[in-house]
Predict the structure.
Amino acid sequence: MPIKNSFAEMQEEITGWRRHLHKNPELMFDVHETAAFVEARLKEFGVDEITTGIGRTGLVAVIKGRQDSKGRVVGLRADMDALPIHEATGLDYASEVEGKMHACGHDGHTAMLLGAAKYLAETRNFDGTAVMIFQPAEEGGGGGKEMCNDGMMERWGIQEVYGLHNAPGLPVGQFAIRPGALLASADEFEITVTGKGGHAAAPHEAVDTTLVAAQIVVSLQSIVARNVNPLHRVVVTVGTFETDSVASNIIAHQVRMKGTVRALDAENRELAKERILRIAKDTASAFGATAVMDWQDGYPPTVNHETETVYAAEAARVVAGDVDDNVDPIMPAEDFAFMLEERPGAYIFLGNGDSAQCHHPAYNFDDDAIPAGCSWFAEMVERRMALD
């Protein structure tokens, strides 16, 4: 069957929730008002259990099916946080909070999971327990990891976990997925190069850290070009470059650069880390300078489990017909990865049409995608915990 009729009928209501969230964005773990809004809706739906404060400000709701003969528990996850971006959409429901906006569609994800929760609480047409996971701090805070560290999987006995993300460029309401790595890891590094400052007119009396650091930036590109298997995907990007010089006639004593590394597997993730450190130290040493690196592990790759990917694609076909089940992986990261490290499951893309890309100030979630997203969430529960 296609879109569930219930969600077509509920679309206006769910759109209202989404636009309310869009007007009132919150960042990272500071999603108190968003979580309160979600909790209020869930209470109206009559779910069986609501627990707040998981992963600091996350929320978990439980909906029991008509039967529980098999003892199966399926988790569904949505993220709640926004981004520190000034909105430039001009919409009548644009962000009312200066410098904050839902530029990644988490307002849509949350609204769709709420819609699915309402439907599942009303129908309970499944054998088992559905766990609704509303997560804070996906945008860099690791809220998914925090919820797992709070024992979420064990506390609610979650056996499988599923999530989705909107995808600009994919037709509205269409789905795309793949087994294995779907999104990359995201680690950060900071390299500090120290030399000997001096006068620009006497470079022979100094150790020019700007020159050294520039050589490091160029050499880092050899990691992908010459160390990584050409059939694999790795990104090494230096995003900031700052000297302690304040004038054009001063040779800087110290330079700091920051960057990010993206990889689709653990082996290349470790390779990139080792090579960045070696290139920085050896290049600096060759010029008579020193380099130290501070490395921050970020999100691991988002790796879909093979069997659960099949389940997710089957549910998507019920909703949308044709599904791209071998979509190319992409290099952004997603902290649903932590949940997939804890339990088998899958992450799927839902088309957002010809919109601006995520994290762009003109981005907006397409409300026409709501029925498909809600239907997929509900279909996952009803298919994985089907009544006999």
Remarks:
- The CA atoms of residues 157 and 334 lie 23 Å apart.
- The longest strand covers residues 234-243.
- The chain has two domains: 5-182+301-384, 186-299.
